[in-house]
Amino acid sequence: QMFWPNELAMLSRLDLKRATSGADIGCGHGFVSALIASTFPQIKLCGLDISEELISTARSVHGDIENLEFAIGSAYDIKLPDDSQDFIYSRLVYQHLSNPEKAIGEAFRICASGGQIGILDIDSELQLFSENPPALKTLLSEISKAQRERGGNREIGRQLPLLLKEAGFSNIDIVLEPISTLQIPLEQFCAITMGFAEWFIADDRGRKIYTAALNELTNLKKPIFAMLAVMFVYGRKLPNA
Description:
It is a single chain. This protein has helices at 4-11, 31-39, 52-62, 100-110, 134-149, 160-167, 186-194, 197-200, 205-218, and strands spanning 21-25, 44-49, 68-72, 85-91, 111-121, 127-129, 170-180, 226-236. It is an alpha/beta fold. Strands 1, 2, 3, 4, 5, 6, 7 and 8 form an eight-stranded mixed sheet that branches.
């Protein structure tokens, strides 16, 4: 909710006011799907996620939104017809995928002629701190390691433009949107951008490493600037593509 105005500004790069169909691939609990569907009520939006638990939650929380439905499905095998969706969106999903090429190929298949795709994700090199104490370096390194072990890639952002091009999309462009301690306090910034390490890194190590990094930053007793820029990469499927 805090980031939604920024996210909506990025989504405005797509022709959502003209769209009548769309798919949110990797929708999780469906909170962003619900915001999109509520903002653009003319769109019949389908939120897909591979997790039965998350889709169950999405249905129970957002089931009253008439133009929104949820389905269990993989980004690698989307149960939607060819050329059927005016826009496709994936938010913080591709960093977790071991085969992003296959996922973008599926997105291209279901994208309608003239339709658009938008992918919001990260690149770890776009996260920075004015101070880099040892525990923080350890935390960031361990997060990247855990991501690789799960088959993901926290440097996916720099690959997305070429992946879209290779899949067949055109008119590709990029928006960088910063989240920083100019907007929110340091502890809140760390919770949003790195707090997931508490469960993402196994055997209670994540909680300990995250706590150590946060304590080290706050104990410096000096102002800290921190920033993470998310990438919004988007393109269009041209007619006859």
